[in-house]
Amino acid sequence: MSTEEVKATVVPYDEVEATKVYISYNNVHQLCQEASAKIKEFKPDLIIAIGGGGFIPARMLRSFLKEPGMPTTRVYAIILSLYEDLNSVSTQNEKLGAEVVRTQWIDYEKSGIDLIGKRVLIVDEVDDTRTTLHYTVSELKKDVISQCQAKGGNPEDTKLGIFVLHDKLKPKKADLPKDVTYIAARQLPDYWIAYPWESTDIVTHTRKAIEQGNDVFLP
Amino acid sequence: MSTEEVKATVVPYDEVEATKVYISYNNVHQLCQEASAKIKEFKPDLIIAIGGGGFIPARMLRSFLKEPGMPTTRVYAIILSLYEDLNSVSTQNEKLGAEVVRTQWIDYEKSGIDLIGKRVLIVDEVDDTRTTLHYTVSELKKDVISQCQAKGGNPEDTKLGIFVLHDKLKPKKADLPKDVTYIAARQLPDYWIAYPWESTDIVTHTRKAIEQGNDVFLP
Questions:
Q1: B162 neighbors B180 (Cβ within 8 angstroms)
Q2: Which comes out higher in pLDDT, residue A57 or A211?
Q3: Could you say which of A60, A66, A79, B26 is the most buried, measured as most Cβ atoms within 10 Å of its Cβ?
Q4: Which tens digits make up the pLDDT trace of B121-156?
Q5: Three-state SS for A62?
Q6: Which of residues 19-78 of A touch B (CB under 8 A)?
Q7: Nearest Cα residue to A177 out of A139, A149, A123, A128
Q8: Is B127 known to be catalytic?
Q9: Which of residues 165-204 of A touch B (CB under 8 A)?
């Protein structure tokens, strides 16, 4: 192997760093604020946050959707795990061919809600391989059908929407049905996105976000 | 009425502002990080986030509780509403004598979990009148008893803990049982606490938090 070849396989440190995108809390907050105009056009009756990544954007979004004189949009949380993760030590969210398992779902009965005729916004932080979003949409559509069968109603009257902070421009492992409204605050290449809630040094994290222009707050 | 008396009843603008405490996202993140040492001593098996206020701290906390080689602590979400709020336009979280209603609760059956012998950490943003926390503890204790009756087990083996960002030093409307572990990141007078996720101008909000010393991040 020549020296040239060795060099070619070494990825410079700067290049590794460049593919890691630091996102600050204020940036996430502002992405939600910016997207809220489009989301208001979708007019969600309720929000379903996919945990853990969807919890924070969903809570932020709720403030921006609040209209004077109207009740706050309700946020329901669902938690999905990948089968292989349940008894493993992995922290990865999506794996090749992994089976999605419901760890927490909406308890329609106890919550006293159904999805019939509702406009439902699903919120997650990132659309990576689309596996989780596809699973969520499929399962919600099944719920709608069984609810319509039980109570009456047309499944087509339920409208599903998706909001993610970031859509990674990469081949997806699943397609979403055409009738699903899709809103991504940003599209970006298949970078490693470092969200603030995963950071154990938020000061350094925020500095890096500011350096990368991912935080508009400059005091 | 003399001029002096009139003056005495006027609250200066500065004083009004001083009773509103601005909390930045990074501040919340660091409060969770700081409290995580104490919370690790409690050793939670699972986290129950009270929505909407508990969602964000619970998600942040999860990162700090992660131990290498161990699975992530699961976060379940419950949503409570006050009866008067359900059909009103209010955004207040706690009212005198309001009845607490479960909007979302844990679906033990579908989630495949129970609380028997578990160490359960309840997370909310603020302990104001303690109404919501008291209700949550009471209901979870009922769940534990019925689960122990159904499956066997000693209800006393379940340990409940509470984590809040802020405990307001004010008369509480309810007491917590003595066997509940209580952790508050900060205690403060009965100020108006402005959390970042309620802000529609996060730049100004963060500036004010920094001015008040509620944000250690100073680039």
A1: yes
A2: A57
A3: A60
A4: 999 999 999 999 999 999 999 999 999 999 999 999
A5: helix
A6: 24-26, 29-30, 33, 49, 51-52, 55-56, 58-60, 62-64, 66, 69-72, 74-77
A7: A139
A8: no
A9: 196-200, 202-203
CB A126 within 8 A of CB A193: yes
Radius of gyration of chain A (CA): 20
Strands A181-188 and A159-168 turn out to be: parallel
Q: Which residue has the tokens 């969807």?
A: A54
Q: According to DSSP H, which parts of chain A are helical? A: 3-9, 13-18, 25-42, 55-65, 83-86, 108-111, 131-151, 202-211
Q: Which residues of A participate in catalysis according to the annotation?
A: 128
Token output for B26: 């990074």
Nearest by CB to residue B207, choosing from A86, A197, A219, is A219
> Which band of pLDDT confidence, cut at 50, 70 and 90, is reported for residue B18?
low
Model confidence at A3: pLDDT above 60:
no
How many Cβ atoms from other residues are within 10 Å of residue A78's Cβ?
Answer: 19
pLDDT at A215 over 70: no
Q: Which among A102, A89, A197 is positioned nearest to B62, based on CA atoms?
A: A197
Give the DSSP letter string of B127-191: ESSSHHHHHHHHHHHHHHHHHHHHH---GGG-EEEEEEEEEE-S--SSPPPTTSEEEEEEEE-S-
Residue B1 distance to chain A (closest CA, Å): 39
Cα separation of B19 and B131, whole Å? 23
Give the range with max mean pLDDT: A93-102, A119-128, B84-93.
A119-128
Q: What is the pTM of this model?
A: 0.85
Is residue B170's pLDDT more than 50? yes
Report CB contact under 8 Å: B56, A58: no
